[in-house]
Structures are given as C-alpha cells and as structure tokens.
Amino acid sequence: VQLVESGGGLVPPGGSLRLSCAASGFAFSNYAMSWYRQVPGQEREWVAGISASGSTTYADSVKGRFTISRDNAKNTLLLQMNSLKSEDTAQYYCVKGRWRLATNTLAAYDYWGQGTQVTVSS
Question: Tens digit of pLDDT for each residue in 73-84?
C-alpha cells in the first residue's frame, strides 16, 4: 500500500487549497478513506472521511468549508479546502480505512501517507 499526498503550501487566510492523495497497492474503490491533520505537540485530528459508497462525513471544525471526494478511476482522494483559517495550519495525512465505512475512529485506519504541510498565514 502506498499513499502519496500533494497540494499543500502557504496560503493567506480566506484562501483555498486542494490536496490530492495518489493511492496504490490495494483495491481503492473498496475502502473508506479519510484525511487527518496534526500540529506538532498535539494529537492527530480527523478532518473528513468518505466511504466506499461515496458518502461523506466531516469534523464540525471544517464542515461547510472542506469537501472530500474520490476518483475511483484514478485511485485518487481529494480534499478541497476553502475559506481557510490560521487554525487549519497542520500537516495533512491521507489514510486508508480497514473497511468500507468511514468513521472518525483512529483504529479504523491502517495505512498513512507521509503528509503534506498546509500553512495558513498572511
């Protein structure tokens, strides 16, 4: 299993970024996928998840601003982030679920990418 994130960077408050995760080594369409984020010294925070069926769930902190999606034909997970705030600054990780249903439980995920840094600052 390999998960490779891209698309992070520096953006001013109110700006947008789109993160991508290229997945390989497993039957992508059969598994839930999620995005987590982590700030140094803090616990990892679940951001959003998408089930194998395509249904989505979001953390309250990003609901209405972030959109998770998947392209099963390209084995790609996406995260569109709009109206970014300074508190969104973190390392963002693409994670593979153990099952078809996406949840916000850390134990439900078994593989992680290397992460991509998102910095929201003026």
Answer: 999 999 999 999
